[in-house]
């Protein structure tokens, strides 16, 4: 049975847990999904993240934060990690880990940028690059629970090769509409020329403001701020726009 994180169990969520890698798969040439078994995992909500800690034999330790890609599902947690140039942790997680390896996870973390199946309003998801990860958790949670809230996803990537979860996003789903946007290179014959997200791009997929949608935007800081400004200019309620951003962290 899927379990939800209980806000009052703060101590449980702040405790480091040993996680064992039980599977992995490539999503793009630069990103991998890692599947961990985490005994005693307290459960999570779609949109939350975890802290990952690596400790070397000499005692050196470092940690990074990664969004959870999976819907709540018992003691299993999936993280999709995109390699960052010169990234200390991301390079190891995308190229150096083997099934059976163990590391430490702490979480789940976050309570604002989350979607719960009980929410009835229509949802717009806007992802920039690897910002798709927590939004994919929302899509998977919706499918897992049979929630009826309609979803629309606008997924902006540099090139077609950068699309994560492509097969899954192409699976027919009457409650999910997916639109891809390319900023540097588009597939042959694609109607829209490559370029930055624009107001008309958003207007073509956004729910009418009168429908009271909730919008989740995730990606690099510049992308998120630009998108939020465009949404407000389109008349969307700023209080219903939830954002999650990331920037260079050393990987």
UniProtKB/TrEMBL annotation:
Cofactor(s) named in the record: FAD
Highest taxon, organism lineage: Bacteria
Protein keywords: 2Fe-2S, Iron, Iron-sulfur, Metal-binding
Biological source species: Catenulispora subtropica
Domain spans labelled FAD-binding FR-type: 14-115
Record-given protein name: Ferredoxin reductase
């Amino acid at each position: 049975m899927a379990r939800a994180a209980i806000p009052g169990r703060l101590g449980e969520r702040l405790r480091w847990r040993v996680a064992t890698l039980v599977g992995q798969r490539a999503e793009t040439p630069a990103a991998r999904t890692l599947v961990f078994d985490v005994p005693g995992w307290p459960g999570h909500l779609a949109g939350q993240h975890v802290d990952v800690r690596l400790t070397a034999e000499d005692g050196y330790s470092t940690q990074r934060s990664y969004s959870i890609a999976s819907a709540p599902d018992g003691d299993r947690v999936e993280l999709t990690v995109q390699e960052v140039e010169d990234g200390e942790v991301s390079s190891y997680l995308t190229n150096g880990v083997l099934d059976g390896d163990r590391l430490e996870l702490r979480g789940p973390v976050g309570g604002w940028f989350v979607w719960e199946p009980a929410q009835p309003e229509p949802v717009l998801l806007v992802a920039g690059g690897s910002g798709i990860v927590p939004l994919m958790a929302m899509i998977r949670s919706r499918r897992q629970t049979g929630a009826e809230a309609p979803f629309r996803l606008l997924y902006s990537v540099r090139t077609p090769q950068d699309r994560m979860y492509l097969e899954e996003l192409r699976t027919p789903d009457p409650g999910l509409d997916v639109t891809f946007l390319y900023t540097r290179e588009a597939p042959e014959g694609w109607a829209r020329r490559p370029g930055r997200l624009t107001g008309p791009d958003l207007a073509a997929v956004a729910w009418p403001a009168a429908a009271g949608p909730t919008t989740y935007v995730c990606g690099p800081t510049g992308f998120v701020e630009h998108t939020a400004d465009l949404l407000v200019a389109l008349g969307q309620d700023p209080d219903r726009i939830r954002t999650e951003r990331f920037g260079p962290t050393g990987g």
